[in-house]
Every structure is written in structure tokens, then in C-alpha cells.
Amino acid sequence: MQNNLESTNSIDVVIPVYNGQDYILQALHSIEQQTYAPSKIIVVDDGSTDKTPDIVTGYRSKIPIEYIRKRNGGLSSARNAGIAHSTSKYIAFLDADDEWMPNKLTKQLNVFINTNYENLGAVYSKYRIIDSNGELTHKHYVFEPDPSIRGNIYARLFEANKIAGSGSGVLVRRDCFDDVGLFDETLHACEDWDMWLRLASRYEFDFVPEVLVKIRRHHENMQRDTSMMFRNQLQFYNKWLPLAAHHSDCLSALRLNIASYLISYLPRINKISLAIDLLSETSRELLWMKYDQSPYLFLLSMLPEVALKLVKRHMQSIRRLLKHIAL
């Protein structure tokens, strides 16, 4: 019975890694401990210059490991190489510095098997943040999924990247990528948000309301490169603003998201000037054409909505902190 289940619901795990010698073993161990064993692990080495190749090729696993070494091309490029080598019905992504809870694949696969959605494409879960030592930390904001963020969530995703746990928390049907395409290799940030939007435009999402993923934050995380993140997030906005313009709800949600993002940088005027330079003419028209072409009037007009959004976010954080203290 178990063998038949595994043959019809096989899972490949794709691990993109670049200089991951400090954490790749923990990632591999967390896959070994899964209560539902994947068919294989595809490790895509994106041009590491440390000991990653030796660690992976020397690792003895009960699960077959396919090691692929390629020239450095970024996270999306590595994930795409893994997808190209996958043969199973489902793909689970695990960043090389993250870890899974032992029942991660079991819980998500059960959702796929027992779903009432006609066109379910992806299942995600709750997550927690760990530090460089693998200890839980509460220094970082954790987005707690709303139970309503399931099914057709396309419009809701324009409000923010609501798929918790990054790429490490999602199980996806392999054939979905044949339909919507691979990760956008021109984006070096927000590439997961871009993929979830494309998937949500054609497929339904569901989630497991349990913590199944541990996301590691450490000094080498690319999220610390704020300049790179800023430029790439604006590139993401350039891509999606014209697409959101076809749906008023989507455009309104994305405009609020962009306003919140730019207001957070408002004390650094150079960032706003950079945004003006980087946003396309179409994007600028969609954002502040009604405000005498002034980004500052646009941001001023959005302040009440941004303030309300921040209050809601911080109330969630406060409730989570009080719950943690009570425990």
C-alpha cells in the first residue's frame, strides 16, 4: 500500500545551493527524517567556491541524491535546473540553509490527496525563524497565514507575498511549471512572489495550518543586501503593475503595497529618487498620474491606508508576542 502510494504521488526535492557548507548537512538531514520519503534529492550547486561539492558528493543517503554543478546564475537559475531534472509528480523546494519538520511532506501531500479544490496547484504551511545555530528566534517578523488565503488567491497576492515560508515551504505539482513557466531568472529578489502570482492566476492554493518549515536568518542571507533587494523589488513592480492594471482590485492592492514600501524608505530621499529612475514610464503613470506626476503627493495621499496596514501588521505581531510570553 505504501509503495503504491509513493509510486503515484512521488516527490522530488530541489535544493539550490551556493557556498552552503555551513548548513547544507542540516538541510539534507531534515529530508532524511521525513515520514514520507521523497523519490530523490536534486542538489543544484550554483558555482560554489567553498566545500559544498565535497560535502554533498560525500554524503551517504538512503534517498538517491542527484548532484548537478553549474555556473553561477542565481537562485532562480538553480531552481530551474532542478525542475528540469525532476521526474516526479510533485516538487518540493528547500533552500540549503533551511530545514523541514519531519512531517512536512506527509502533511502537504495529504492535502493534495484529500483536496476539494478542482485545480489545486500548490500547498504551503506556517513557518518559524531560526538563527545561525538552529535555535528559534523571535527577532524577525513572521507572517501568520490567514485561513482565508486558500483557493483562488490571485487578487490577495497583490497585497503582499502571503505564501509563508518562502520557497522552502511549498509543495507544487510538477506539471504546473509546464503551464506557467519556470522561475524568472531576471529577478534576483521577489522571484518566489512572482512565481506564486503566476501559479495563482491558473491554479488554486491550500495550506497546512502548522509549522512545517524552519527558515534560517544569518549574516550571509541575501536579504541583508538592501540595495539589491530594493532594485529587484522595483523590477518586480515594473513587471506586475501593467498586469495588475487589468483588474481594479489587484491594482489597488499593489499600489498600496508599493506605497508602503516606498514610505518605509522615505527618510532616505535618494531611494525615492532611485525609484523614480528605475520605475518604467508605464509604472509611474499607474502610480501617480493623478497626482500631478508627483511621487510625493502620491505617497502623501496613501498615508492613511499605509498607516492602517501597519497597525494591522503590528497588532498581529503584538498578539503573537503575548501568546509567546504566556507560554
Descriptive overview:
An eight-stranded mixed β-sheet has the order 3-2-1-4-7-6-8-5, sandwiched between helices. It has helices at 2-8, 24-32, 52-57, 75-84, 104-113, 174-180, 191-200, 226-244, 248-264, 269-278, 281-288, 295-326; strands spanning 11-17, 40-45, 65-69, 90-93, 99-100, 120-130, 171-173, 204-216. Helix 8 packs antiparallel against helix 9, helix 8 (226-244) packs across helix 10 and helix 9 packs across helix 12 (295-326). The N and C termini lie far apart (41 Å). It has twelve helices and eight strands. By secondary structure, it is of the alpha/beta class. The longest helix has 32 residues, at 295-326.
Keywords:
327 residues, alpha/beta, Spore Coat Polysaccharide Biosynthesis Protein SpsA, Chain A, 2 domains, 12 helices, 44% helix
Report the CATH superfamily of the largest domain.
Answer: Spore Coat Polysaccharide Biosynthesis Protein SpsA, Chain A
Rg over CA atoms, rounded to whole Å, is 20 Å
- What letter string, H or E per element, gives the SSE order? HEHEHEHEEHEEHHEHHHHH
Q: What is the first-to-last residue Cα distance? A: 41 Å
What is the strand content?
15-25%
3D shape: globular
Strand order of the largest sheet: 3-2-1-4-7-6-8-5
- Helix and strand content put the structural class at alpha/beta
The biggest sheet, with number of strands, parallel, antiparallel or mixed sense and barrel status, is: 8 strands, mixed
What's the helix count? 12
- In CATH terms, what is the fold-level topology of the largest domain? Spore Coat Polysaccharide Biosynthesis Protein SpsA, Chain A
